[in-house]
Design brief:
The chain crosses the membrane at residues 52-72, 84-104, 116-134, 140-163, 170-188, 200-224, 252-274, 286-307, 319-336, 342-366, 378-400, 406-424. InterPro entries: MFS, MFS_dom, MFS_trans_sf, Sugar_transporter_CS. This is MFS transporter. Pfam families: MFS_1. Helix 5 packs across helix 8. By secondary structure, the protein is mostly helical. It has helices at residues 2-29, 45-66, 72-79, 83-86, 88-111, 113-133, 137-151, 155-165, 171-200, 202-223, 237-248, 253-279, 287-293, 297-314, 316-333, 339-367, 372-426. It is 81% helix and 0% strand. It has one domain (44-227, 243-426): MFS general substrate transporter like domains (Growth Hormone, Chain: A). The chain starts with a helix and ends in a 5-residue tail after the last helix.
């Protein structure tokens, strides 16, 4: 019955989309000699320019988003809030980002992919500047929440752009490079924040991230090609709702969305609260030293592109349980009392996370046949909802059971994610 409903919805949606596309492309119909624009392939100069721009987009998104993560112990000290309260600096951003993503994909259908992404990044950078100068904790949280709304115009639209403009042979590595950019942004957001904070304070660190985001917006504006395989059409809320309903009735997509929730939640929870463990005895590390530990993000940057290309050989449904297993292993290693083992655990967790995210997001783009931007929005809604919910819930487990309680929570979620990925593989539900 569910399958029949999905077919009915697809039949209702397809004529609307086809009509819109036909109206836009009608002037070309009489010019048979004009070939359809080719998709971007690996090894071409255009591929390099496009991925440099998308890499910058991913960099800025995660730098703005996660620069507050290593600062949470300082927020607790400066504003007299608990660990769970300090986590709102990130959870409010990711929570509003998750909700806004449900509309952002549809808005990009009307405004265009590139203008939406560049505008979102410029607005987010401006909010970052304001958050660095406002003195009250409540005002700071408001700016962080608004930043989540502004940033929603970038991640899902970027995934849709890759799915539309890249040749299928180049999709995996292009998505891996984009995710690698988010890795470098996440690392810089944490590492530079720690160094600048020790030198000039946390407000200067947040301002630095905002300035970097402006530079990334300029790179996107200059080098990202305009969409060639996308047709603008007005925002149609009824059609948008039907597209979401169709994707939620798909036999595979909802499970991929669930994987996004679990893998992001587990990863963010570990990174949120590892700072509380490392600033306390017996480690007693400074912000700079904690920031330097996050240089293991380089492992994620390298591995995301490599795993993205590896998925074309092994297959995404085979690779996903392996990368999720690495996340679980890394989480367990952070339970050790040895600093080298903890750093190794963070590195393994990071490699597994970026590999899992790269594989899962590419699977969503490949699987969605109707409304790629909306499918990407639903995946990232689940992804950032996991970051928000599990990221804050980790503070409760930290207060109740310390690092042991936190890692038991995270490990349990990742075990569920592994079981889901194995079930998808066993039942043949793949992209």
């Amino acid at each position: 019955m569910a399958g029949q409903d999905a077919d009915t919805l697809e039949q209702e949606i397809a004529p609307v989309i086809d009509t819109a596309e036909a109206a836009e492309t009608a002037p070309l119909a009489s010019h048979a000699a004009i070939a359809a624009p080719r998709k971007i392939e690996f090894g071409t100069p255009e591929f390099v320019r496009t991925n440099c721009a998308l890499f910058a987009a991913g960099f800025a998104t995660f730098a703005l988003l996660y620069c507050v993560q290593p600062l949470m112990p300082l927020f607790s000290e400066s504003f007299h809030v608990s660990a769970a309260g300090a986590s709102l600096a990130l959870s409010l951003t990711t929570g509003l980002l998750a909700v806004s993503l449900l509309v952002a994909g549809g808005l990009s259908e009307a405004w265009g992919r590139k203008p939406m992404m560049v505008g979102a990044l410029v607005l987010s950078a401006g909010l970052g500047v304001l958050s660095a100068v406002l003195p009250q904790w409540s005002a700071f949280l408001v700016m962080r929440a608004l930043m989540g709304v502004a940033l929603s115009g970038l991640p899902a639209v970027a995934m849709a752009y890759v799915g539309e403009e890249m040749h299928p042979r180049s999709l995996g590595i292009a998505m891996g490079l984009y995710v690698g950019g988010t890795g470098l942004g996440g690392m810089s957001g944490r590492l530079l924040t720690g160094v600048v904070t020790d030198m000039w304070g946390w407000r200067a660190a947040v301002m630095t991230m905002a300035v970097l985001a402006v530079l990334c917006a300029l790179i996107m504006w200059r080098y990202l090609p305009a969409s060639r395989h996308f047709v603008r059409r007005p925002l149609h809320l009824g059609l948008l709702g039907k597209t979401y309903a169709l994707q939620l009735r798909d036999r595979t997509l909802p499970w991929l969305f669930a994987e996004g929730f679990l893998l992001a939640g587990g990863f963010v929870a570990v990174y949120n609260y590892i700072g509380y463990r490392l600033v306390a005895p017996p480690f007693s590390l400074s912000q700079t030293k904690i920031g330097l530990i996050f240089a293991v993000y380089l492992c994620g940057i390298v591995s995301s592109a490599w795993i993205g290309s590896l998925s074309g050989w092994l297959g995404r449904r085979t690779l996903l349980p392996i990368t999720l297993g690495l996340m679980l292993l890394g989480t367990l290693l952070t339970r050790a009392d040895s600093m080298p083992v903890i750093v190794l655990g963070i590195a393994v967790l990071t490699v597994g996370f970026f590999g899992s995210h790269s594989v899962a997001s590419a699977s969503v783009s490949a699987r969605a046949q109707t409304g790629k931007a909306q499918a990407s929005s639903l995946y990232l809604f689940a992804y950032y909802a996991g970051s928000c919910v599990v990221g804050s819930l980790g503070g409760v487990f930290w207060n109740l059971g310390g690092w042991s309680g936190m890692t038991w929570m995270t490990g349990s979620l990742l075990l569920v994610a592994i079981l889901v990925s194995l079930w998808l593989r066993a039942t043949g539900r793949s992209a």
